[in-house]
Amino acid sequence: MSSLSIIWTLAQKELRDALRNRWFVLYTVAFAALALAFSYLSLAGAGIAGFAGFGRTAASLINLVLLIIPLMALTIGAQSISSELERGTMSYLLAQPIGRVEVFLGKYLGLALSLLASLALGFGISGVVMVLSGSGAADPSAYITLVALAYLLSLAMLSVGFLISALTRKASVSVGIGLFLWLGFVFLGDLGMMGTSMAMKMPIGSLFAMSLTNPSQVFKMAAILNINATLDILGPAGVYAVHHYGQSLLAIFLATLALWAVVPAALAYARFANRGDL
Amino acid sequence: MLSFALIAAILAIFPFAAAQPFDLQAALAGAQAGDTIVVPAGNYAGPLVIDTPVTLIGAPGERPVIDAGGQGRVITINAPDVTIRGFDIRGSGASLDREDSGITSLAARTTVEDNHLEDVLFGIYLQNAPDSIVRGNTVVGKPLEMGVRGDGLRLWYSAGSLVEGNRVHDSRDMIVWYSPDSVIRGNTVERSRYGLHFMVNENVLIEENILRDNSVGIYLMYGDGYTVRNNLLFNNRGQSGYGLGIKDVDNAVVEGNYFVANRVGIYNDHSPLAPGATTRTEDNLFAYNDIALWMLPLVEHNTIAGNVFQENGEQVALAGEGVLHNNSWSEAGRGNYWSDYAGYDANGDAVGDVPYVAQSLYEDLLAKNPELRLFQLSPATDAIDLAARAFPLFQPRPKMADEHPLMAPPALPTVPGLAPPPLAANLAVAAGMLLLAGLLLVLGTRRSWRNGI
Question: What is the ipTM of this complex?
C-alpha cells in the first residue's frame, strides 16, 4: 500500500473510533444543541423586533465556540496517542509494516475530519434556524468564514492536544493536562491578561500584542473582524489594532492560528517519532 | 399646472419642437416670472443660473441631463419660488472652499423634486432659503475620501423647510443648521458620515427616516424641542459613532425608534442642559447594539420608559465613572423591558416585583479601564460577573435601577423596514454544512474495502 492510502485507511479508522468515543459524541451533541438554542433565541428576538441581527447571533456563536471547541479538540487530541499506548494497541499498530509518520498523519487527519463533521453539524443546524428566523447573514460568505475560523481554532487546539498526548503515557494524565490548558486558554489566560493590564497600566499596543498569544482571543478577533469589518466593539485596543495593522490584520490573525496548528503538531510528531517506549 | 399641460400639449403637436436642439440657457433668459419651462431629453451644459421665479421641469419620463462638466455649481437659484423637477444633475466641481454643489438655492420657497444628483460635491444646498421643499431626490456623492466629500443635503438658515423622501448615499452628511420648524421625513441615508446632523435648531420633527451603515445615524447638537420619531437606525458603527447622539439639547423627545445593531444606540452628552428641561426616551427598541444607552454620569432629568432593551452587549453604560442620578426609568408605574431581567411577577400585574438593576463588575471595570473591552465576548468576562454575584463584596454600585421593569416587551410602533437577508443562499450554505457532516459520518461508519487495520 502506498503511504497515502495507509494514511487514509488510518484516518477512516480514527473517524470510526471518534463516533464510538463517548466524549466526542457528547461534545458534538452539546455543541449542536447549544448552537441551536442560541440561534433559536435570536428567533425569539425577531418576534419582538422584527429584526434578528446576524451580528448578535454570530456573537453568541463566537462565545459558544470559545467555550466548547477548545474543550472538544483538546480532549480528543490529548487522548489520541496516549490512550492507544495505554491499551497497547499502539505497539500492535507499529508492528505493522507502516511508518510512524503515516500513523501520526492518519490519526491527525482522522481526528481533524471528525472535528470538521462536528462543527459542520452544529453550524449547519444553527444556520438553518437562523435562515428560518430571518436572521441569516446579509452576505452568506460571512457565515462560511466564521465556520472556517472556528475550524482553524479547533485544529490549533487539536495540535496542542496531540502534543500533550505525545508527551504522556496515560490517557487520564493527558486528558487532565488538556482540561487544565483549556481552563488556561478560555479563562485564566484572559483573566491574567486583564489583571496584568490593569496592574501595570499597559499601553494598548502591548495589550493587543499580548492578547495575540492566546489562540482563543485570536479566533475571536478574527471572527469579529470578519463580521463587522472593524474591531471597535473591542474598544480602544481594537481600534488601535485596525489603525496600526490595517489590511494585514486578518493575515496576522490567520498566521497566528496557523502557527498554533502547525508548531505543536510538529513538536508532537518529533516526540512521537523518537520515543523509545512505544 | 395649466401652463405645464399646455406646453406638454404643444410639444406633442409639434414634434419638430422636440427635434430642434432646445436652448435651455436662452429659454431661461427669456422667461417671465411664473413661467413653466418643460425641458425635453438631452444633455445640457451647466452652470445654470436662475434669476427669475420659474418652474423648470424635465419632460415626464425623459430625464434631461444638466452637466457642469466638473466645474463649480451645476444650478444656482437666486430667485424665490423656483421649482426644479425631474432632472439628472451631475458634474459639479470638487472644491470644498467654493462649496461646489448640484443645486444651491439662495432664495425662499424653492422646490427641488424628483431629481437625480450624481458626481456632485454637495448635493442640494439651501442657503438662506426658508420654507423650501426638497422631496424625492436621490443624491450620490463623489467617490472621494470621507473628509473631502461634500454634504448630500445642507440646510443653512432655511427655517420651515420640508425634506421628504430623499435618498442619499456615499455622501458626507445630511446637515441642518439654524433651520427651526423644519420637518425631515421618510429619507434614507446610507454609507455616509452623519446620516442626519442638526446644529442649533428649534422644533424640528425628524420622523420615519432610515439611517443605515453610516458612521453616525442622527446627531442633535444644541437647540430645543427636537422630536425624533419612528426612525430606523441600523448598523451605524463609526469609531466614535452612535445611532443617535444628543449633545446639549433641551426637551428632546425620542419615541418609537428602532435602534438595531449600532455601536451605541443613544449617546447622551449633557441633555437636557437648561434647568427645568427634560429628555424623553419612550417606546423605542434597542436591539443587538454593543451599548444600548450610553450616558455621561452627570446626565439628569431624563425620562426613559416603555422601551425594549433586547440583547444589547451593554444595556446601559456610563461614559466614565459614577452612577446615574435624578432620571426616571419608569413613568406611571411602567418601566422598560429588559431582556436580561431575572426577576419575577408574583402579583401578575405584568410589572416585575423586584427592580431591574444594571450592575456588572466587568462593565464597571470597563468604565474605568476601557482598554479591557478587548476581552469582550470572552468567557472570562462572564466568569468575572459570576464571581461578583457569588461574592457580593466585589459587586459594584448599580449604575441605575428600573423600579417597574416590564415582564413582556410592549407592542412597538412600526418603522420603515429593511430588505431581508438572502434566503436561498443562506439556506444553501447551512444545508451544505449538514451535507458535509453527513458525508463524513458515512465515511466513518462505512467498512473499509481494504483488508486494512
Answer: 0.85
